Each structure stands twice: as structure tokens, then as C-alpha cells.
């Protein structure tokens, strides 16, 4: 079998340009499928991981998808603010088990500063790596990625900037202090700066109100009285609330309730057409590659009849020559499949490197067992492309071929 592999490789090297073209076609098709498979799986797992314990998000009326993206994934702008008094009524509703308030509006070096309360820790199951959780105004606990990219350490201070991105309008009247750094959580909290809601208010109020929240270590709900927040992340008390609660909010209040599961499904349905189109395009390229390999092998069989006849005279069986042709095809397609998978991972690494939104960052070092199916696809293409040319071996008449060549 080793000799067959070596002979097949040398036969391919006799026409390097054709071999390169066939490998490139296979690699291009496999590469596209690899990128789509890896990117879809990573995005899907990120969406699921970040929203797995959140049943519904309540915020200002507008686009439900925008509300989900801004409040859970932190990759869009909020739809607006809602009164704290209205939010508190919903939080106290019998159908609600947990309601986590969010106040957004500032960032530090592109990392969003999120005003919330201690229930946020329970919702995401946060664990500390260093220091402690925030307690008072202007105290923060930062995500692991924030610490890595900004260089902030426990005890450091920094100034937040107005807006969810950019650093043009810096709030220099107050400095945040880092009290703790989270362990890597594997979700959106790695890129967040967490503080209490009073800190967010303090950054956006005039001097006459700067002393209003000095007692912020008390009940966090008291500190946001008569104010506005961005959204509520809600867990239901019972499955029955799935039907009743969103309808109640949407019809009887000036707020809206958006389901992360429904909006994520809608998001994937919107981009699904483009993904399916690219998959069909990749399949077409792989079909062309199989046809190209078939044609090149079929034509080479006509040119190599004399060589095959000599090999038969030297003791090679018809089945051995059959597997020789099959091996040549498999070397092309398997090599193309491996190169295609490498192209897929390399492309995702480059895309992830230049991505601005860290919350949806793609990882080129992410591997899936389903990628083995891409290798299997390369093997199937190789076998199908080589079958007809390989069967020509059984039609070679040794005496006639050697006599005609002589």
C-alpha cells in the first residue's frame, strides 16, 4: 500500500498545475463550508450561553431585537429608558422570580459600564478572581477581558466616557475605582465593567445632586427611586408566565417585553438565507472540483495505458492498479479538504482579530468534531471522481497495448 501511495504521488507531480488546480477547488469549497460551520456554531453557542438564564427582557418600546442585543449581548444601542417606578411594579409581579435592573450609557475603552445591583451576580453566577464585588458608588468589578485589554488592576482608577463606544466625552468629574476582577466566565460579562446604578446617575447629574447617593450601600432599589433605567432582565417563577407576562407588558404598559429565545431565532432566520446560499455555492464548487478530477484522471488513463500494461507484466494485479488510480484521486481531495479546513480556521482567526465587537468575537482555534464530516466529504468526492477512470484498468489489453505502442 505504501508503494501505491508513492507511485500515485509521483504520477500527480507529473502534472503539477492540474493537481494544484484540483486541490485549490476542493480547498475553496471545503473552506467556505468550514467557515460557515464554525462561525454559525460559535455565534449560536455565544447567544445561548449569554441568554440561557434570562426568560424575557423588558425595556422601552421599539425594536425587540435591538432591546435583546443591547441588554443581553451589549452589541447595540438601547431602545431608550423606562421609569424605575414602572420597572419596580413589574419586578414585584407574582409571575417574576428575579428582576435584574440595567442602566447603560457609558464606556471605558470600548468596554461598557453597566449599572446594576447584586442580583446580577446571581443571574450570571459570577466568580471573583481578585478583590471583591462593588458595593458603593464609583466602585467597579471588571471582567477578565477588560482587565487583559486595558491593563487595569485592583485599586486602579479610571474615567468613563459618555456613550457606548468612543472616548470623546470623558466624565472627568468622577473616577471609578477597580475593586475586583472576575474570573473568566466564557460569556459577555468578560467584557463588562460592573458598578451600581447610583454610579451611573452620579456621572450624568449636575453638582447639585452629587451628594444624593452617598448611602448607596443600602438597598439598591432605594437609590434608583424616581429615576430611569435601561432595562430589566427577568426570570419567570413558573412556565405559565411565558404566555401571560409578555402579553401583559406589551398591552398594558408603555414598555415592551422581548424574549431572547424568539429574537435569537428570528435573527438566525434573517441571516439563514445568506448562509444557505453560500452553502449551495460551496457545494457547487466541490462538484466542479470532483468533475475536474474525474476529467484529469480519465484523460491521464488514455495516456498511461502503456505504463499500466508494463506494470501488469511486472506482476501488478488489476485490483492493485485500480487502487492506484483511486489513491491518486484521494490524495488530491484529502489534501484539498485539509487545506480547506486550515483556510476556514485561518479566516476566522483573521476576522476575529479585526472584529470590534468583542462580545461576538470569532475564534480561529475553535474546533468541532463535525469537521470530520468535511474530511469525509473530501474522501467521498475522491472516490466518486475516480471510479470510472479506475474501472478503465480492467479494460486494458496488455498484448494489444504493448504491440500498438511498439
Structure, explained:
The protein is α+β, with helices and mostly antiparallel strands. Helix content is 54%, strand content 15%. The chain is built from 14 helices and 13 strands. The protein has helices at residues 2-13, 16-51, 64-73, 84-91, 119-124, 144-150, 197-203, 220-223, 241-252, 260-303, 305-313, 318-354, 372-391, 398-405, and strands at residues 56-60, 82-83, 96-108, 111-116, 128-131, 139-142, 157-158, 161-162, 176-182, 193-196, 228-229, 231-236, 255-258. The strands form two sheets. Strands 1, 3, 4, 5, 6, 7, 8, 9, 10, 12 and 13 form an eleven-stranded mixed β-sheet that branches. It has a two-stranded antiparallel sheet with strand order 2-11.
Summarize this, please?
This protein is α+β, with helices and mostly antiparallel strands and 406 residues long.
Number of domains: 2
Radius of gyration using CA atoms only: 31 Å
Query: What is the CA-CA span between the terminal residues?
Result: 31 Å
Rounded average pLDDT: 84
Share of β-strand residues = 15-25%
Secondary-structure element series: HHEHEHEEHEEHEEEEHHEEHEHHHHH
- Structural class by SSE content: alpha+beta
Q: What characteristic shape results from the CA principal axes?
A: elongated
Poorly predicted regions are: 207-224
Helix content: 40-55%
DSSP strand count: 13
Described by strand count, sense and barrel closure, the largest sheet is:
11 strands, mixed
Number of helices: 14
Amino acid at each position: 500500500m505504501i508503494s501505491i501511495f508513492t507511485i500515485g504521488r509521483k504520477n500527480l507531480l507529473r502534472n503539477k498545475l492540474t493537481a494544484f488546480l484540483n486541490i485549490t477547488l476542493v480547498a475553496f469549497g471545503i473552506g467556505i463550508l468550514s467557515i460557515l460551520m464554525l462561525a454559525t456554531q460559535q455565534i449560536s453557542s455565544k447567544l445561548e450561553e449569554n441568554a440561557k438564564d434570562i426568560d424575557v427582557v423588558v425595556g422601552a418600546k421599539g425594536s425587540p431585537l435591538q432591546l435583546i442585543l443591547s441588554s443581553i449581548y451589549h452589541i447595540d444601542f438601547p431602545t431608550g429608558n423606562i421609569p424605575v417606578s414602572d420597572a419596580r411594579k413589574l419586578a414585584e409581579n407574582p409571575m417574576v422570580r428575579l428582576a435584574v435592573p440595567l442602566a447603560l450609557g457609558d464606556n471605558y475603552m470600548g468596554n461598557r459600564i453597566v449599572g446594576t445591583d447584586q442580583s446580577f451576580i446571581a443571574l450570571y453566577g459570577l466568580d471573583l478572581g481578585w478583590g471583591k464585588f462593588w458595593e458603593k458608588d464609583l466602585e467597579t468589578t471588571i471582567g477578565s477581558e477588560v482587565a487583559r485589554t486595558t491593563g487595569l488592576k485592583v485599586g486602579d482608577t479610571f474615567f468613563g466616557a459618555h456613550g457606548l463606544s468612543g472616548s470623546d466625552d470623558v466624565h472627568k468629574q468622577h473616577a471609578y475605582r477597580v475593586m475586583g476582577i472576575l474570573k473568566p466566565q466564557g460569556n459577555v460579562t468578560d467584557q463588562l465593567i460592573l458598578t451600581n446604578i447610583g454610579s451611573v446617575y452620579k456621572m450624568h447629574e449636575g453638582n447639585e445632586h452629587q451628594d444624593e447617593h452617598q448611602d448607596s450601600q443600602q438597598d439598591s432599589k432605594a437609590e434608583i427611586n424616581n429615576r430611569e433605567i435601561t432595562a430589566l432582565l427577568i426570570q419567570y417563577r413558573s412556565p405559565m408566565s411565558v404566555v401571560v407576562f409578555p402579553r401583559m407588558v406589551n398591552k398594558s404598559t408603555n414598555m415592551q417585553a422581548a424574549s431572547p429565545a424568539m429574537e435569537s431565532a428570528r435573527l438566525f432566520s434573517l441571516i439563514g438565507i445568506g448562509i444557505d446560499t453560500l452553502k449551495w455555492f460551496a457545494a457547487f464548487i466541490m462538484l466542479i472540483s470532483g468533475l475536474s478530477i474525474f476529467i484529469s484522471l480519465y484523460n491521464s488513463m488514455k495516456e498511461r495505458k502503456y505504463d499500466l500494461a508494463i506494470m501488469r507484466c511486472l506482476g501488478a494485479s488489476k485490483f492493485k492498479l485500480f487502487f492506484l488510480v483511486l489513491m491518486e484521486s484521494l490524495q488530491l481531495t484529502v489534501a484539498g479538504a485539509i487545506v480547506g479546513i486550515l483556510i476556514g480556521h485561518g479566516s476566522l482567526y483573521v476576522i476575529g482579530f479585526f472584529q470590534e465587537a468583542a462580545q461576538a468575537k470569532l475564534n480561529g482555534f475553535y474546533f468541532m468534531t463535525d469537521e470530520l464530516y468535511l474530511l469525509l466529504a473530501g474522501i467521498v468526492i475522491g472516490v466518486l471522481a475516480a471510479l470510472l477512470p479506475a474501472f478503465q484498468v480492467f479494460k486494458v489489453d496488455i498484448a494489444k497495448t504493448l504491440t500498438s505502442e511498439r
